[in-house]
Amino acid sequence: YSLPYQMAIYGAALFYLWLGLVFIRLILHLKKIPWWFIISVQLAIALGTPILNYVHFDASFVHVYSFGLINMFTYFIFKYINEAKKNQFWIAAFILGVIFLVRPVNLMAILLVVFAFPNLSELKFWVSKVMDQKKHLIGGVLVFLSVVSILPVLWFVQTGEIFIWGLSLI
Do residues 45 and 51 lie in contact, with contact meaning Cβ atoms separated by under 8 Å? Predict the structure, then answer.
């Protein structure tokens, strides 16, 4: 691949690392964590995990992009839990759709919502509250499905097939 292509991927990896670290700071700030601990967590993640390897040597791998997107999703879900504004839920649904397009197995990020609650009774209360707000839920599902449907639409336009199996048996 050409040098401009490689530099663009490297720049994108750096951007998503920065984005992930910014959203970790915002998440911890929502949880009222002291600033010195937030900086320590950011440094520990940046320097104590293989994330810099994925930025510098394996920038085309999805790991650093997933890191940024999952942190964005977590922030908007926690923000929705605190404020219950539909726009935050819809932004989280949009980001979840992008997470699915980047790497479908990362859809497990939705389980992060469980860690927002100190006990099971609060989780049950919040789930019932979301179920009561049908407009938020329906809108979020529609946003998620509209993002996820981009790939089958592109496949259909290009090949006439709605689903393309990536493994060839021939």
Answer: yes
For 26-38, write each residue's pLDDT tens digit.
Answer: 999 988 999 999 9
Q: Show the tokens assigned to 102.
A: 């980047």
The pLDDT assigned to 80 comes to 86
Reference 61, options 9, 8, 1; nearest CA is: 9
What per-residue confidence (pLDDT) applies to 167? 63
Cβ burial, residue 158 (10 Å; 0-12/13-18/19+): exposed
CA 117, CA 140: separation in Å to the nearest integer? 21
Q: Minimal CA–CA distance to 104: which of 66, 75, 142?
A: 66
For residue 31, count other CB atoms closer than 10 A to its CB.
11
Distance CA 99, CA 62 (A): 10
157 CB-near residues (< 8 Å, 6+ apart)? none
SS3 106: helix
Averaged pLDDT of the chain: 88
**Nearest-5° angle of CA 28, CA 32, CA 37?**
60
State the pTM of this model. Answer: 0.86
d(CA 6, CA 56): 11
* CB distance 104 to 166 below 8 Å: no
CB atoms within 10 A of CB 38: 18
